[in-house]
Amino acid sequence: MLGFVPPLPQQPGRPPSSGHMIVCGDDALARRLAVELRFIYGERVTLLLPPGRDASGPQTPMTQRGRAAALFGRMSAAMNRAGHGNGATDGSGDTNAGVEAVRIMEAPEPSDDVLEEAGIDRAAALALVYDDDERNIRAALTARRFNPRLRLVIRLYNRKLGQHLEELLDQAAAVAMPGIDPALLDASTTVLSDADTAAPALAATALTGSSKVIQAEGLLLRAAERPPPGPGESADPGLCTLALLSSTTNDPAGAEGSDSSGDEAPQLLPDERALAETTGRGTVVLEAISRADPARPATRMGGRGAPLSQVFSRRLRWSALGIALAALALVVASLLTTRDGLVHSTYLTLLDLLGMNDPSEDGTTARKVIQLLSGVAGLLLLPLLIAAVLEAFGTLRTASSLRRPPRGLSGHVVLLGLGKIGTRVLMRLRELDIPVVVVEEDPEARGIPLARSLHVPTVIGDVTQEGVLEAAKIYRARALLALTSIDTTNLEATLYARSVKPDLRVALRLYDDEFATAVYRTLRTAHPQALTRSRSVSHLAAPAFAGAMMGRQVLGAIPVERKVMLFAALEVAGHPQLEGRTVEQAFRAGAWRVLAIDATPPADRNPDLAAPPPFDPEGAPPPPSSGLVWDLHPGYVLRAQDRVVIAATRRGLAELLRRQRSAVPGR
Asked: In what order do the strands lie in the sheet containing 219-226?
């Protein structure tokens, strides 16, 4: 699928000069991050990979080194085509002329000797993006010992551990460098999770189909796709237009929405002229800005108790109802034939029903018949009681285990896979109170304890086997999220689900970009009325990791077809493209746009704009309103002390950071 792999260039035997960046990892995120730093930011990069084949992609017999070489080759060719095809000389093509190729090293572990060979003591930043948290922590402690000034970006799934590790490494840097600038110390260590970065986009795809949400200082930025206006209609720009979608949405041979799609590709951050001249294209607009709820734990499905419908089966409940009606009929018959009172007739009937009464030898014929019928009903009651006890025992035994999808469930999201990504997406969906049914093959998967604690219905089985998706009620679902680590499994589940429900909303995770492009085109054309999205976790997460390595905070990434738009917080100082310019003058089409200004005094600013307000279960008053000003006058002049929130393309953000870096002495 990757095609021909060109031979790797000879790697230099000497360590690189100072100021380079080191990326250590064992999966697609490491390779994607190296590409981002080299081809987007123009940095000198050393990539450390384990030897041997890539365990995350067993269907393709290619080594880690071969995969990286193929990816670099394709990216370099695309950059050259972009530069020559457009005649660009302003940085839109490959502006990294004179920057040496990525230096690829192979080593099983990032040991002391390996890091020294990579030039850790002279590096500007180090990214540790192994899939193993322990390996990343061990390497981070080693790197901080070698180079206290090193900027560390660490991939950790355990968020609580990540917070403690970040504080520990920052303290170590502060001790090693007394008097360090607090701003530099704040960017010294950054702990990120690719699962946390990608989960909001994946959950939003299933939740609202075409809406994406970015959080900034307790506020929600909601971007929504809007179809092209009809004849005589005008498109509603919302607060601002972020992107124009592809012009070949329903064409199987048309653009797939990536950076290599030419003029038919999506246009990010278009200007007024482009909006006026373009017809027949959908748009992505900034639709609403609302207050975010405080961070609260994910809610359980079905509450804390176990209703009768979950304790006893439907058949048993109908049987019990039949016995009760029979007993009632016997009581009525006793009243009509014996002339006894209601209480006495009920008492005698229950005694007969339970086999506790004496034979009515001297009674009337009617009394004897009623007694015989009560005995027969009592015989039917005995197995019913035994079945109820067994079912109740089984339900209580599995109360702390996994729930089955309840009968009548509809409008839910079917989530395939409970690995790192699936677990974070499940938590996100439950925080939004979206009903979910999980399908997982491994009963010991990472996310099974979370599904059990949240009472999420779970189907244990191979999704490619017949009947598994039916057990998850796929025919009544609102969306399917295929997030397993195997491309063919995700594709097979998607195709089968679409055969059951053609209008099902689908988002699938695909590992290989070329494979994802082909799948996206085919599914989009075969089912034009149904939403189809293919997502790469590394593609969504890499910009945030790259921004952290450059010392900047990326608030989030919004996928626009197969492109990515970034939202970042920047200090105006040191950016000549922003400082001293009005908001209107600072806007550059296809690169960046100022969305908001933080009016909070610099000493009181929140360093982490992406953090949600704390949740107080005791109902404490809400936190103070945000200092971000979103309704900006086009004539407002940006000052050096301002902090702004911008929407930017990957190249636009890289250009801002490159310009700032070139203005810093010593770099």
From this structure: 211-216, 219-226, 283-291, 240-244, 267-268
11 pLDDT tier (thresholds 50, 70, 90): very low
pLDDT tens for 319-330 read 778 777 877 887
> In this structure, are residues 638 and 583 in contact, taking their beta carbons and an 8 Å threshold?
yes
| Model pLDDT, residue 129 | 94
Task: Write down the pLDDT at residue 320.
Answer: 76
**Residue indicated by tokens 């004496």:** 358
Query: Cα–Cα distance between 162 and 356 in angstroms, integer?
Result: 68
Rg (CA), the chain: 31
Tokens of 485: 């680590």
Q: Which among 250, 268, 270 has a CA at the least distance from the CA of 258?
A: 268
Which pLDDT does position 290 carry in this prediction?
Answer: 56
Q: Which residue has the higher pLDDT, 662 or 324?
A: 324
Q: Please, are residues 224 and 631 in contact by the beta-carbon 8 Å criterion?
A: no
- Rounded to whole angstroms, how far apart are CA atoms 255 and 246? 7
* Average pLDDT rounded to a whole number, residues 433-447: 90
The vertex-42 CA angle with 81 and 571, nearest 5°, equals: 120
Count of positions (residues) in the chain = 667
72 φ/ψ angles, rounded to the nearest 5 degrees = -65, -40
Mean confidence (pLDDT) of the chain: 75
Read out DSSP for 300-341?
PSS-SS--HHHHS-HHHHHHHHHHHHHHHHHHHHHHHHH---
What span, in angstroms and rounded, lies between the C-alpha atoms of 364 and 368? 6
Enter the DSSP assignment of 37.
Answer: I
Closest CA to 219 of 618, 660, 631: 631
- Rounded distance, CA 220 to CA 213, Å? 6
How far apart, in whole angstroms, are the C-alpha atoms of residue 100 and residue 433?
Answer: 50
Single-letter residue type at 544: A
Spatial separation of the C-alpha atoms in residues 461 and 445, rounded to whole Å: 12
Rounded to 5 degrees, φ, ψ at 554 are -95, 115
Highest average pLDDT, of 336-340, 350-354, 447-451, 549-553, comes from 447-451
pLDDT at position 564, please?
A: 82
Regarding predicted confidence, which is higher, 348 or 194?
Answer: 194
CA 466 – CA 112 distance, rounded (Å): 51
Report whether pLDDT(634) > 70.
yes
CB contact at 8 A, 492 and 500: no
Distance CA 640, CA 656 (A): 15
Distance, first Cα to last Cα, the chain:
40
Is the distance from CB of 353 to CB of 374 less than 8 angstroms? yes
Distance CA 275, CA 237 (A): 10
Contact present, 537 and 145 (Cβ < 8 Å): no
The answer to whether 554 touches 652, Cβ cutoff 8 Å, is no
Note the pLDDT tens digit of each residue in 55-95: 444 444 556 656 555 655 555 555 555 554 444 434 444 44
β-pair partners for 480: 414, 506
Report the alpha-carbon distance of residue 420 to residue 183 in Å, rounded: 32
Task: Give the helix ranges, DSSP H, for 147-224.
Answer: 159-176, 182-186, 194-208
